[in-house]
Design a protein that fits this description.
The protein has helices at about 1-55, 60-135, 140-190, 210-215, 220-230, 250-265, 270-300, 305-315, 325-345, 345-355, 370-380, 385-395, 405-420, 425-440, 470-485; strands spanning about 200-205, 230-235, 240-245, 320, 325, 445-455, 460-465, 495-500, 505-509. By secondary structure, it is α+β, with helices and mostly antiparallel strands. Among the domains are: about 1-135, Helix Hairpins, CATH 1.10.287; about 290-420, Hypothetical protein af1432, CATH 1.10.3210; about 425-509, Alpha-Beta Plaits. It has a four-stranded mixed β-sheet. Strand 6 and strand 7 form a beta hairpin. It starts with a helix and ends with a strand.
Amino acid sequence: MLVIGIVVGLVIGAVVGFLGLRAWSNAQRGSIEDRGAAVLDEAKREAEAIRREAQVGSREEAIASRAKVDGEVQERRAEASNAEERVLEREREVETRGRELTRREQGVADREVHLKQLQEELKQAKTRQLSELERISGMTTNEAKQHLLDRSVDLVRHELARRVRQLDEEARTEAKRRARNLVADALQRVAASHAAETTVSLVELPSDDMKGRIIGREGRNIRALEHLTGVDFIIDDTPQAVVLSSFDPIRRELARLTLTKLIEDGRIHPSRIEEMYYSSKADLEDSMRQAGEQAVFEANCGDVDEELVKVLGRLRFRTSYGQNVLKHSLEVVNLAGLMASELEAGVRTVKRAALLHDIGKAMTHEVEGSHAIISAQLAKRYGESQHVIHAIEAHHYEVQPQTVEAVLLISADAISASRPGARGESLENYIKRLSALEEIAAQKRGVEKVYALQAGREIRVIVKPTEVDDDGAVLLSHEIAREIEDQLEYPGQVKVTVIRESRAIEFAK
């Protein structure tokens, strides 16, 4: 087609040139004829003038003048004849080129016909070749395409699994190294002890005789104590001790202080009980305020509003899964501050957010909503910055974290809560968590058995070797880990081990 296009272009150009040259020669011929006529007219006018002059002048001068005019006329005629010869020569050249272009055009047309014949023959040859290939392979064209696509998918899948394995290994190695160094350094510098707190308090008595005085005549003293404090006083066979039971740690502490003062005073009757109760309540409020001030001082994150300090002090008597919330908040402050300084993030911002992130737990029995939202509302009410408020409300993913400080607070909170001995857990929750981990893995295709080990820190998945190959095992471990991360709230890491034909393929989350 390119050759045909070039030849057609040459033909068209030659035709256009021929027509232009012919038009130019016609114009030249007309110009020469006009010039000859003008010369003749001029000569006639000059001859007439000479004739008139000859009539007036001498005959010799008229003859000389006529001879001169005749010479000029002959010269002009010769010039016109030469110009006409040149025009005729040009016309002959144009005619010759026209015949050549016509010949070439005919050749191009013949080649075009031949090219079409060759294309038709090539098309027929391809059709015969395709039919022969289908006969030899025993597959149609569509079947061959599908086979090629399936093979390409297998190759891409294998390459993808290899690449996923390589990237996972590199990312896991680097992330483990950096995270281990960062967290280990933070934990080493914040080596806080943990002791699970319970819902009972024990008050020691100087003697068992004091039990009778606490009960009073017909139980009036113990009824007054329980009515004022809202705490159950358990007086049993325990030697020289009274057990105080209540789920409200502030009430339990208030009852303990009241009973301790009554024992020291020795006078136990309803009016004295009421007096000691209000005295202990004032002392307890002062103690909570001091605890809040001490926490702010230890956090070293700047001044905090007085009302927030009071609410913060109440966390001293609040526990979460047996972990003291105020001690937990201070530990989170230290962990988050250390990690923020290593990452060059906002240390002051993350410390303030860590100190106040659980302050809403002191208000959950008074205000509806999650403690993260309540904490954020309190921080906003008393003038905390937007970065602090966002980190507080995002530490349990009530909103998605958008800042580095929010992510650091989430990490520090999880580290403090998941440290060995930090929190207790019921058997029911423990079994539910293990069942959820096993259920996620068991739903996958090709999984034969699933075992949750090490209190849910590791999952071993045994797959059917006929349904899952090595590459599929890598992708399966990756999928299980991602679903555990998306569906379960689980601090720390869970190692997923996929076992196929005595080979273990691991993916740690």
